[in-house]
Backbone:
């Protein structure tokens, strides 16, 4: 049996921008992506701790060291710069493998979005 489990999580990052005039996605600092074992194009779920919004999109790689977490396109309407978000991705795996799998968890500094 295959199940979907949490693969990666960036917990409590601060939204730095919301760009309505873009075709869609979330731009994330490459340092955060590396730490969380996430890649460009990967589907992610976003939870906004400030307003309760939950939605999904895909990742665009942002400039390394920039601290950028930018919601683009329609998703820009669901957040405000300064909001705190949780960014999660999931993976399908065998039930037995899932029992011992450990997700990548990142807890960035919420003021700078740098790895602490």
Residues:
């Amino acid at each position: 049996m295959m199940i979907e489990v949490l693969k990666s999580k960036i917990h409590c990052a601060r939204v730095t921008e919301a760009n309505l005039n873009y075709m869609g996605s979330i731009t994330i600092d490459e340092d955060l992506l590396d730490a969380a074992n996430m890649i460009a194009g990967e589907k992610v779920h976003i939870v906004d701790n400030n307003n309760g919004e939950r939605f999904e999109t895909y990742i665009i790689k942002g400039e390394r060291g920039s601290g950028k977490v930018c919601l683009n396109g329609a998703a820009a309407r669901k957040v405000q710069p300064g909001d705190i978000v949780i960014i999660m991705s999931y993976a399908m795996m065998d039930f037995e493998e899932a029992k011992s799998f450990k997700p990548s968890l990142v807890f960035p500094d919420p003021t700078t979005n740098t790895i602490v």
Notes: The first strand starts at residue 2 and ends at 14. The mean pLDDT is 97.
